[in-house]
Amino acid sequence: MAFFLRRLIGLIATIFGISLVIFAVMNVLPGDPALTVLGIESTEDARAALRDQLGLEAPVWQRYLGWLSGLVQGDFGTSYSFRVPVSDLIFERLPLTLSLGVFATVLTVTLAVLLGLFAASNHNKPGDWVTMILSQLGIAIPAFWLSILLVLLFSVHLRWLPPGGFPGWSDPLAALQSLILPTAALALVQSAVLARVTRASVLEVMRLDYARTARALGLSRWRVLFRHVLPNALIPMVTIIGMQLANLITGTIVIENVFFLPGLGRLLFQSISNRDLLTVQALVMLFALIVVVISFVVDMLYLLIDPRLRDART
Amino acid sequence: MRPFALALTTALVCSTAYAVPALAKTDIALSIQQEPTVLDPTTDATASIDGMLTHNVYESLTTVNEQGEVLPALATEWTISEDGLTYTFKLATGVQYHDGTSFDANDVKFAFDRAMAETSTNPSKGIFAPIETVTVVDANTVEIRLKQKDAFFLFNMAQGDASIVASESADANTTNPVGTGPFRFESWTRGDRLVLVKNDDYRDAANVQMTRVTFRFIADPTAATNALMSGEIDATPGFPSPELLPQFEADPRFNVAVGTTQGEVILALNNGHAPFNDIRVRRAVSHALDRKEIIDGAMYGYATPIGSFFPPSDANYVDLTNRYPHDEDAARTLLKEAGVADNTKLRLRIPPYTYATRSATIIQAELAKVGLDVEIEPLEWGAWLDQVYKKSDYDMSIIAHTSPNDLSNFANKKDYFYGYENPQFIEMWNTIKQEADPERRAELLKQAQTFIADEAVHGFLFQLPSLGVYKKELSGYWTSAPVIFSPLKSLKWTD
User: Fold this and answer.
1) Which CATH number covers residue A188?
2) Looking at chain A from residue 261 to 290, which residues have their Cβ under 8 Å from any Cβ of chain B?
3) I need a labelling partner for A103 at 20 to 30 A (CA). Which of A229, B208, B307, B485 fits?
4) Residue A253 is part of which domain span?
5) A31 lies in a domain?
């Protein structure tokens, strides 16, 4: 319990620190949001009028406190360029990015565990070699390049799937179709890393006495693998999955641009070039929050997986 | 059973056709690179807002055709007083806004007063500066009185910044645009698409073929190419990557349209500081540039060289590309005369546009040959606006000026980022602005171009081309882009 509390306090302090860093960085960035919105033909008095409307004339500390107190109440402010609440912008795009992230994670873990177990159980046999060569390829290929290849094959030549875009969840079938290629592009690359970790971790546990004993007692090979080896090989895998989740989130920024999906990554990209500081701040804050929460959850999962850790820390 | 079920689901999901080929097509999907931020051209300068909505959803008093000539729009005719200061516009009758409210002279007054107000954030507030008063004469007549003569007035009034918005809907236009144009707004999914449908009550509705127009926001050129190749979209006006065009030129399904724009691409020189406050150094740079090499390398040949700051498509254009022919010896001599040391370091700070980043490396190599050590510094757009445009903190930059009639830039004061101020040119431009006689004005415009070329204010590189990829069956689109809007009402599918 103390471990949990310590981690929770750490979590809150981290989030507060992040908010300060994000705000500071955004405000030393050169650029005038009003000039970006109104363009180079605009007159100085029109820009001043807009800065006034956007509340940019207030001193920095006042704007930080205003932003922070808004954050606590769940109010991210009004976007400089879109002129609508930032929370609206985020919520209309969150479902897409979340679905993409969840699908990609599920596919990554499933693929990686199956491949890792397959490779480990065929240790030093052709099955192992093929899996290892494939995963080496997966690590080497960047996701955006794989995306382009997938689009060329499945959209341009075969015409099975759309080359990008997202029709919205009102048409679930079309929505699923449009997420197949982006999910595959993200997951294939990520699962390569995880498959290797799974294989190594499983191999290590398989060498231990109790695994041999279980086998000697007459349990089938797959039963030993799933029931006895896998649970004990989980710790390194969960660590890597946690790190990969963070990677998947940043990965969606690139993938959303390749597949022109209206998700959070696209919004971030656009807001930076629009000098839409409030939206950028909110998004970076959100991404940071997700990463921090994931690492918190991973820590908690350790306790669940390994009872010894629970005893040691309480 | 399970793998089978999975395979079946996959097959079902994959095989459902996502693009339905329709007969007697009256809808069209276009891709556009830049996403709009709001849907009101009178509050935001983002070019795609005008590109999609100006003269499609919104209308102005006047409009222009592909040759840049001013034509009637909401104003069906007008008269100009003897002294050139009073414009009397007759307005179209029976016009309704898309929300059902009717259009009359009061709307014109409202729209102009709103744009000219002290708290106005109109991105081109300057075009309203010559206006003294806007008076409603009767429901269908408006009189606009100017403080000084303005030869560009009717042209400027055609722009999206001068859209005639209604008092009932103006404030909500940022997300729900209401105008009088041939198309009404249907929906906007931020980050994905904007849909317009035909306005059946439009004055000339019988001649509008498209019933539904979808703009897809696709920023990445490769993604746009794939979307065209797979049939997901029908056209990409403003195609961003010249290097991908040969693929479409070879494909019988597409037409590639190469036209002109109002965008002069310049190697901007900071005239406000050494060494470019010395005309010899500026002339040396002009001699050092090899425009053909720059155009071939940066634009894959799809651009017209310029020798001054004036579009070659204009009737009054003078070809000044040979004013300072490519001559490295001449450049070195001039630099020596001006006392510029060998390997003088210069900062070339550029915005994140392909035309700029690609030209930069070639220019760097060309200037190195005459003994200038150019360091390229890429900036993102917000930073470029702040550092180069606002604070003039640069030696050289590369930028396209896309506004029409922007020779006026050189009539600015020294605090404009060119750092160039010349009373003689300011005087010249004032005369041009007030000259109503077309022949006399043509002569003056020619003189002005030549003057700026002689002064070698910047390195003048090339005119930005208008590149577009269109399905073969499509017609009625503009090949050239004389303004930043482009009308959809003339688009047609032919067999």
Assistant:
1) 1.10.3720.10
2) 261-263, 266-267, 269-270, 272-276
3) A229
4) 86-313
5) yes
Residue that the structure tokens 């059946």 belong to: B200
Sign of the torsion formed by the C-alpha atoms of B279, B353, B57 and B166: negative
A111 Cβ neighbours under 8 A, 6+ residues apart? A187, A188, A191, A195
**Mean pLDDT confidence for B298-307:** 95
Same domain for A279 and A177? yes
Count of H-run helices and E-run strands, chain A: 15, 0
In angstroms, what is the C-alpha Rg of chain A?
A: 24
Report DSSP state, residue B322.
T
C-alpha to C-alpha distance for A158 and A141, rounded to whole angstroms: 22
Contact assignment for A270 to B191 by CB distance below 8 Å: yes
Residue to test with chain A: of B190, B387, B388, B406, most A Cβ within 10 A: B190
* Number of domains chain A is built from: 2
pLDDT in tens, B197-220: 999 999 999 999 999 999 999 988
Distance CA B242, CA B298 (A): 9
Q: Give pTM, 2 decimals.
A: 0.84
Residue A239, in any domain of the structure: yes
Q: How far apart are alpha carbons B435 and B437 in whole angstroms? A: 6
Same domain assignment for residues A207 and A235: yes
ipTM greater than 0.90 = no
My answer on whether A159 and A282 are in the same domain is yes
A68 and A153 share a domain? no
* Nearest of B355, B347, B430 to residue B400 by alpha carbon: B355
Helix or strand or coil: residue B468?
strand
- What is the CA angle B448-B157-B115, rounded to 5? 115
